[in-house]
């Protein structure tokens, strides 16, 4: 029992279940999933579908944070990815064909990889602190996206492109399937091989990792490229869902949501250990929280207040100081020899 | 007691940087040189650019950013960061606008807003210090909280019609000849002067620099590290609320979406002004110059006419990058000698 209580996934999962139950209390049909026109429908599916971009970005963010970094530029990268693909489809001679959509997606993915490589270059080769290095792209990125779209909202009508964010396959939304596939592949690559451990060792001590024969620079670089890729695919989902590229609002504050998802999931911001499942649960909590606010009839604008309170509570629970305080209260005389320290 | 039991950080920390002698002023001097060069370039390229009023307008249009950058300088000097400033500015504007609409006395409104901002900052500082959570994540939560509270006050824009605020918005303080500044400029420059005095002439200011130079050393020296770390966030919160009042003077309204992304501009101004992000080195006057450089970029783009507004963001990003690289160069060079 105590082992279960101490497991780092226990509290996030408990929070998610509580949130879902709370919703069920207020709306009796909340947990029901029905089949309509061969597709699955229901609030749970909506949560998954709307949360898919956050899950993807949080996935990339988890590995970056595990290497003791942070990527603030993901929202801007998502906006750029949506902008370049929509711009390509918009200006191509056959804006409705499958081939055009595929080329647009490929361009966006290449852009995401390139922007990720840029971040990785600044962090691993030049040696700039991750917050600041990615802040450059966060600041300039939205400007770049507006440059691509010329400040306009670019609308496209391409069925294949729209399928990424709004389509269904085997009754499930395609965005969920993409996020699930990315999650599975990342899990396999990092946990079934040594890669995950290597990333963690870079997060714990980059110098020691390098001295023990690890190519820390390449690993750091790789996690940023991966984060850029995830952000680009998420950007495609966001723009395809509304069939338009909005350089200003696409992926706005999504970096914050992703970081929160990672932190709630029990990955330490100090690097060195991560949990992909935790991140998934964290992203679902964030998305469910947004839905809960709607269900409860609270003005949707207050979502931010809720998110802030959740983050503060989760961070406080995770801080070592709070844990010692709590455990000291539970077991007041574990170390009788220890003198009382006022702190 | 707990101070002594804490293990000091290893001496070869990679973030430890040393800038000795004149090199300490190099980043700030580089920014001042850049500003003068940009102003000269503007004078050559555009007729009417070389006037005192163009320079004064840089101050008039950026009063709130100057005050924000001052608060941010304190935080960054200790090696921390405050992402909540833009939201606190918006919250201050909303509180001011809502209370003025309800018929409060402007003096009481300003006092309450400043108190709220300072308290907000102090609370974040307390969480950072007591629970040892990274400043980044705490102030991120602060960003959400303050922005959300804005929406709770009102989703719509509230216009300020209070006679005192409108008179502050329209007032012109004449200088020599036809030159003039707004009252906001005077307030902002007073804030800069006070910050300069506090950082260089008081025990508190020296502790701020000491924490940035090496927190464990500062602790071992018996400096009031915990108190100072909480207070810098209080100062940043106070500066944000002053900036909010100045923004209200400037825009005469309160709006939940106002000042989004202002924290990035403030951080950019501080970095461009030569303050090292690792803490310990930097000057408020540098941050003031940083704001002026960002302001002149904006002026250039409006003078050019053909350039769209998004170039501002791209140029600020590029400037940020150049100055970070410069910092890297300066610190590395000095370490080798």
Q: What's the helix and strand layout?
A:
The complex is a heterodimer of chains A (343) and B (337).
Chain A: H1 2-6, H2 10-26, E1 34-36, E2 39-41, H3 43-66, H4 74-91, H5 98-126, H6 130-149, E3 154-155, H7 159-166, E4 168-169, E5 172-173, H8 174-191, H9 195-204, H10 206-211, H11 216-241, E6 244-245, H12 254-264, H13 276-295, H14 303-318, H15 320-330
Antiparallel strand pairs in A: 1-2, 3-6, 4-5
Helix pairs in contact in A: 2-13, 3-8, 3-11, 3-12, 3-13, 4-5, 4-6, 4-11, 5-6, 5-11, 7-11, 12-13
Chain B: H1 2-5, H2 26-45, H3 52-61, H4 63-77, H5 85-101, H6 106-131, H7 135-153, E1 158-159, H8 163-170, E2 173-174, E3 180-181, H9 183-201, H10 203-213, H11 215-220, H12 225-251, E4 253-254, H13 262-272, H14 284-304, H15 310-336
Antiparallel strand pairs in B: 1-4, 2-3
Helix pairs in contact in B: 2-14, 4-9, 4-12, 4-13, 4-14, 5-6, 5-7, 5-12, 6-7, 6-12, 8-12, 9-10, 9-12, 10-12, 13-14, 13-15, 14-15
How does this model look, in words?
The complex is a heterodimer of chains A (343) and B (337). Chain A is mainly α and 343 residues long. Helices cover 70% and strands 4% of the residues of chain A. Chain A is built from 15 helices and six strands. Chain A has helices at 2-6, 10-26, 43-66, 74-91, 98-126, 130-149, 159-166, 174-191, 195-204, 206-211, 216-241, 254-264, 276-295, 303-318, 320-330; strands at 34-36, 39-41, 154-155, 168-169, 172-173, 244-245. In chain A, the strands form three sheets. Chain A has a two-stranded antiparallel ribbon with strand order 1-2. In chain A, strand 1 and strand 2 (39-41) form a beta hairpin. In chain A, helix 5 (98-126) packs antiparallel against helix 11 (216-241) and helix 7 crosses helix 11 (216-241). Chain A starts with a helix and ends in a 13-residue tail after the last helix. Chain B has 337 residues and is mainly alpha-helical. Chain B has one domain: Orthogonal Bundle (ABC transporter involved in vitamin B12 uptake, BtuC), CATH 1.10.3470. Helix content of chain B is 72%, strand content 2%. Chain B has helices at 2-5, 26-45, 52-61, 63-77, 85-101, 106-131, 135-153, 163-170, 183-201, 203-213, 215-220, 225-251, 262-272, 284-304, 310-336; strands at 158-159, 173-174, 180-181, 253-254. In chain B, a hairpin with a 5-residue loop joins strand 2 (173-174) and strand 3 (180-181). Chain B starts with a helix and ends with a helix. The relative contact order of chain B is 0.21.
């Amino acid at each position: 029992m105590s082992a279960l209580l101490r497991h780092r996934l226990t509290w996030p999962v408990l929070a998610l279940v509580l949130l879902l139950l709370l919703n069920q209390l207020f709306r009796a049909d909340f947990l029901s999933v029905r089949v309509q026109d061969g597709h699955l429908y229901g609030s749970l599916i909506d949560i998954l579908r709307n949360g898919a971009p956050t899950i993807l970005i949080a996935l990339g963010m988890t590995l970056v944070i595990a290497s003791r970094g942070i990527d603030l530029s993901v929202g801007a990268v998502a906006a750029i990815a949506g902008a370049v693909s929509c711009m390509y489809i918009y200006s191509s001679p056959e804006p409705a064909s499958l081939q055009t959509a595929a080329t647009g997606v490929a361009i966006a993915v290449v852009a995401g990889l390139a922007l990720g490589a840029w971040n990785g270059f600044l962090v691993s080769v030049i040696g700039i602190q991750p917050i600041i290095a990615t802040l450059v792209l966060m600041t300039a990125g939205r400007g770049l996206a507006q440059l691509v779209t010329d400040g306009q909202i670019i609308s496209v009508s391409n069925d294949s492109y729209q399928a990424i964010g709004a389509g269904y396959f085997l009754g499930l939304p395609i965005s969920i399937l993409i996020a699930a596939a990315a999650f599975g592949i990342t899990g396999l690559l990092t946990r079934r091989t040594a890669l995950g451990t290597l990333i963690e060792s870079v997060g714990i001590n980059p110098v020691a990792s390098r001295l023990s024969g690890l190519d820390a620079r390449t690993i750091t670089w790789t996690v940023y490229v991966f984060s850029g890729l995830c952000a680009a695919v998420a950007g495609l989902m966001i723009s395809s869902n509304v069939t338009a590229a909005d350089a200003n609002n696409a992926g706005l504050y999504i970096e914050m949501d992703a970081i929160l998802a990672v932190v709630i999931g029990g990955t330490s911001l100090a690097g060195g250990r991560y949990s992909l499942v935790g991140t998934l649960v964290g992203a679902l909590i964030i998305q469910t929280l947004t839905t809960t606010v709607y269900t409860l009839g609270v003005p949707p604008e207050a979502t931010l207040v809720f998110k802030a309170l959740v983050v503060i509570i989760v961070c406080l629970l995770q801080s070592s100081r709070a844990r010692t305080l709590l455990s000291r209260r539970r077991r007041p005389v574990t170390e009788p020899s220890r003198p009382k320290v006022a702190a | 007691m707990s101070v002594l039991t804490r293990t000091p950080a290893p001496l070869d920390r990679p973030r430890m940087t040393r800038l000795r002698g004149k090199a300490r002023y190099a980043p700030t001097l580089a920014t001042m040189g850049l500003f003068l060069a940009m102003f000269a370039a503007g004078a050559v390229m555009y007729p009417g650019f070389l006037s005192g009023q163009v320079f004064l307008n840089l101050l008039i249009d950026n009063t709130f950013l100057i005050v924000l950058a001052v608060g941010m300088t304190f935080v960054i000097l200790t090696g921390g960061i405050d992402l909540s400033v833009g939201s606190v500015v918006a919250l201050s504007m909303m509180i001011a606008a809502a209370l003025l609409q309800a018929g409060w006395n402007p003096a009481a409104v300003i006092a309450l807003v400043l108190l709220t901002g300072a308290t907000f900052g102090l609370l974040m500082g307390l969480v950072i210090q007591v629970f040892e959570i990274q400043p980044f994540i705490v102030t991120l939560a602060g960003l959400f909280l303050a922005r959300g509270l804005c929406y709770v006050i009102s989703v719509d824009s509230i216009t300020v019609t209070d006679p005192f605020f409108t008179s502050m918005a329209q007032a012109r303080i004449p200088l020599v000849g036809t030159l003039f500044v707004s009252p906001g400029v005077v307030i902002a420059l007073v804030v800069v002067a006070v910050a300069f005095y506090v950082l260089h002439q008081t025990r508190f200011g020296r502790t701020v620099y000491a924490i940035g130079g090496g927190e464990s050393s500062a602790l071992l020296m018996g400096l009031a590290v915990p108190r100072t770390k909480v207070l810098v966030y209080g100062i940043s919160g106070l500066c944000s609320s002053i900036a909010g009042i100045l923004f209200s003077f400037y825009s005469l309204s309160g709006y939940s979406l106002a000042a989004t992304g202002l924290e990035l501009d403030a951080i950019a101004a501080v970095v461009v002004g030569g303050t090292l992000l690792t803490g310990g080195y930097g000057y408020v006057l540098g941050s003031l110059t940083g704001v002026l450089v960002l302001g002149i970029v904006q002026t250039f783009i409006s003078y050019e006419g053909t350039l769209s507004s998004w170039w501002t963001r791209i140029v600020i990003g590029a400037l940020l990058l150049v100055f970070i690289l410069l910092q890297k160069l300066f610190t590395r060079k000095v370490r080798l000698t």
